[in-house]
């Protein structure tokens, strides 16, 4: 007979020193017939956990079957053991053990004094059977050793060669194995998708006929904590068997909510028809371009929905293969936790919105009191917003006080979306102030922008250094923000917008001409261009305000259809660059050098700087190091 094993490391085949089978494996049962000790051990294993997580940590135990198999290449006999770490439900329920390169096999072999044979090596890494080392399992860096004709081959090449040789002998082949496990989808819970099955004493489990679908749940059950209330509903439970017509019972288990969440998005994209699960419209919209969810979905929901998509694809409900193109895992929102713990009884948590903080004369945070009774509460520090800790904030309250744009700006600005975000009322205020500034600035400058204001023609090559700098700052902020939008790093998009407003606010507006203030056309041009960019840049984050100002300033009717602002590369060019000058590595001055300056020119300018001269006078220079665009370091002898 043959013993089949599943391995992902065929490259280690010359290091096999034993095989191990699961307790449920037919070979184990066979070996236990005349071996009572083995039978007892097998029983013990069967009572143990089959959870992978438990198996990973539990003590590895085994017992020899007394049988052996023949190594496919060397022809040597290989003993077969029963091992408690081998799962019947995975692969073949049997493993080829390579103690030198598999950590479980290593500990097993050490415990039962089985041979350990190195067959993967990394130059300069000494191998010892005394203790397991991470690199023993490294398939990236290692190559075959002590493996005859396979010596020197890397992981992939060795597997190809060995698989081909096994195939030629009819002793093996490459195969794809999935680690999907069964998913029990029924729940003893009232409010879920009904399982359309009727239980009949004679016919068994009979599906509800198509014409009677969907099974509709009663909506007036009152859960009383004593189990699934559907069980008590005779009107729901009692029915006739669709096959024989006899009295039968309707299934009261409902489906796991993960069933619904596995495909809801496809239904959202195809919700017009009530008579089908999905129509072709789902294909038009799907897959989801950008999925967003918490990390808690990483192994459950995201895996289930991929699996479900493939089933829907196989039964030709949809034609796509994967449900989500791109995933963003957002960070948790944190907030302070407030509570009171009575002498006896349960802790009560209070919502931060109902708490007032007290401060001493120096503005230092003191205690906290509950607004309603003025009595102190304790702080439990910062934690994830949760129902159990009652530290969630209802954005509705913020929206009512400050408007939706402020609420959005604050959340976008507080942290990159993947990071945790600490809630702070002060930052909400800051976001609000910024939007007010933008609003005021826009109205103050409206006259320069709206239709009917002076037409402006500016040759940007020909304006003052100050205005050139301002325009460069605007465009370099835009370049950074466009980049950050692509990376979904909205917090720095907001900082770019803030920088733009600062630049615009400090740009000189007017010159005095014959005692009168005369608005400079270059200012007008700059503010028109700058606000145009700023409003479009912010519009995905604070849409209402930007849309309104866009119209008020006569930029156009609808900011949503305005083209996205583009960086003017010419604006980014500099006439002069500031470089820092160091003497022996210490900062001694700053110089402005022409953008096109040669190294010799830069060196001369550095030596001419007053601050630098103080430290170089009378000394000899050993060498000058120039880091282009950044720094000059003068090293003295
Ligand atoms: C020989 C070998 C040598 C292995 C080596 C690993 C390292 P993943 O990657 O998680 O799929 N295996 C196979 N079937 C098993 C079962 N029923 N119960 C427990 N373990 C089983 O794991 C694949 C590896 O898990 C396989 O590759 C096998 O051990 C083990 F240096 O074979 B390997
Ligand atoms: Zn029946």
Brief rundown of the structure:
The chain has 637 residues and is of the alpha+beta class. It is built from 21 helices and 26 strands.
Summarize the structure in words.
It is a single chain. With about 625 residues, the protein is α+β, with helices and mostly antiparallel strands. It is about 35% helix and about 20% strand. Strand 15 and strand 16 form a beta hairpin. The chain is extended and about 115 Å long. It starts with 17 loop residues before the first strand and ends with a strand. The model has no long low-confidence stretch (mean pLDDT about 90). The structure holds ligand ANZ and zinc ion (ZN). The site of zinc ion (ZN) has 7 residues, from loops.
Q: Radius of gyration in whole Å, from Cα?
A: 36 Å
Tell how many strands the DSSP assignment holds: 26
Q: Unreliable stretches, pLDDT < 50, 5 or more residues? A: none
The number of helices is 21
> What structural category do the secondary elements indicate?
alpha+beta
Mean pLDDT: 92
Q: Which ions, cofactors or small ligands are bound in this entry?
A: ligand ANZ, zinc ion
Cα-to-Cα separation, first versus last residue: 83 Å
Question: What is the 3D shape?
Answer: extended
Strand content: 15-25%
Residues in helices, as a percent range: 25-40%
